[in-house]
Amino acid sequence: MAYLISIKLREDYSNFIFYLSPLVAVFLTLFFGSFIFLILDLSPIESFKIFFISPISNSYGISELFVKATPLAIIALGLSYCFKNNIYNIGAEGQLTMGAIFGGGIGLLFNNSSSILLLPSMILFGAIGGAFWATIPALLKTKFNTNEILTSLMLTYVALFILDYFVVGPWKDPDGYGLPKSMPFPESGRLPVLFDGLRIHIGVYFAIIICFISYIVFNKTLFGFKLRVSGFSSKASQYAGFKYKNLIFYTFIISGACAGLAGLFEVSGPIGLLYRDISPNYGFTAIIVAFLGRLNPIGIILSSLLIALTYLGAEDAQLFLKIPSAVGFVFQGLVLFFLLGTDFLNKYRISIK
Amino acid sequence: MKKQSLVLVVIAAIVVIAGIFYVTNQNIQKDVIDDQKKVGFIYIGPPGDHGWTYMHDVGRQYLEKELGDAVSTTYIENVPENADAVRSIRKLAESGHDLIFTTSFNYMDQTLEVAEEFPDVKFEHATGFKRTDNVSTYSARFYEGRSVIGHIAGKMTETNTIGYIVSFPIPEVIRGINAFYLAASKVNPDVKIKIIWVYSWYDPGKEADAANTLINQGADIIVQHTDSYAPCQAAEKAGVLAFGQASNQEAFCPNAHMTAIEDIWGPYYAAKAKELVDGTWKSEDTWHGFKEGMVEMSPYNEKLLSADLISEAKAIEEGIENGTFHSFEGPIYNQAGELVVKEGEVADDGMLAGMMFYVQGIDGEVPQ
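^ Those are the sequences you sent over. The predicted structure of the assembly is below.
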């Protein structure tokens, strides 16, 4: 007897469940995560307390949560423009790096400046750097119909090598004992912090503003409508007279600029100089954040906080539970796995005959 | 369909809640002793690197065994040398750790930043040189071991080409290259070393690539100043010789591994933790070598090395221990041909600590 598994598109596809599924995914992650803790001979309740509560139990911890969540949120908000348009920009990490090189380069070029214009121009060039790096896959896509997933991903490595070149070569700090890092940015090129002694910086405001603008763009403008239409079907959007190629360009530039901003905030904020290891893969993690937030600006803010918390939780888990740092990544992976799973089951019906 | 999903969600919820009740009843609790001192470690890699971090972890376990219940230890692994390091170090300080070892050179500024904020916590920064009232520095004279392996390499190479894989152009690494070359060229004036910078302490992929490149360029001995055993494995595969790094890596490359320079941190860690418990800890700089037992050579591989060569190597070890041999004995010239250490003198610790030049005979330039 043969078993046939058939996968059919659901007719009763539910929008309600679409927005509910991140919660279900988090719920399932906690559930299966508790088995991981049980196997490790730890009490799940205590472990979850350490994983999700103890990192944010004081003001420093809350500030660190925002320090981690800010770049994730800004990048993911930018990516949501691409993803809504069914364009898969996987290269945010590279655009982030380029933003750091462009904006950081301004900071190093004018390292004697105490002008109040230094930081704004660094921020501007950070966004330009990221946008510039994103136009390359956009051009290749529109001119030659190249797969943007491949080109944007590959350009990430190119960007990382360019950063390597600068910090090992021309921009290396002469007093840096040979380490591949630049000299620190001048005080006027550092991102102001919101509270003394904490690292939370004004990038948070940018994240909130970008979230607000995106909400309006997606829901109240013709551009947002075009994005949604071409996301459903690029043919339909062309039939409606929308310039699909322009849409590809705009969305790439927006997401690149956001990633570049995030990169500049990271180097002029907590790090304070250029270094070859500036981002713990924010650009890739932001992809999870964007989908977990359902490409909805407010959802993205919430999911960036959740994912940031898994990073911090993994550190506390090492400290207090003495378990490896990889457990944090296991949780991130579980969240994404269950999210995709619930999405799939919401969209398709599986039956075995 | 919505009904079915709802039913599923409800079932899942019930299972979870039941599970939670089940495990809270068990309530696994750890015994905590009140006046126990807490010692924390920050690791650059995973303890499973079988090199640098592994040996620090061996030292940590030694400390725990020596001091028993008087201390408890914790570590955070894979801490990147970027903005995250501050948070990790701070977290240890904030959670009541009394003594914190940060075990990589690049944690220097981050360690000082946190130390300033927590004046009552003691910090120990490995291989650094910036000290304050509550920050000590410590390092081992790894270069003494480099003299031993340089001697062996000079005698063993047939192609007169030695491949040398290095991490960052910092004094510790440059010093190692020089000590190695001085010893090798002393017994074999024709010896050449080829150097590849991988700009990472732990990147098995890059380290293996570098080893293969060097082997293709004619190197028949691979030396490394990086943390993984990948170069030694690459040498084993290609049928050439190698030295292990930081720990005895013979198990990973039994037919290539001649010996290794081992870092022995345990006694130092135990001594410092003892000082903490006794209240006698003070900020100081420690730089120990063969004599104090912070550097040791792994057992020499008798399959690969002749008995004569092994006894020569052991003689160098003894010479360094009793002071009759120094890795940097004059006359030493730099690449420009200037005399930097006069005949009959040895390089002082100040020169060694800031060494950023190659000695005469090494091809290439120190990356600037």
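Chain A has a mean pLDDT of 89. Strands of chain A lie at 5-9, 348-352.

Shout if you want it in another format.
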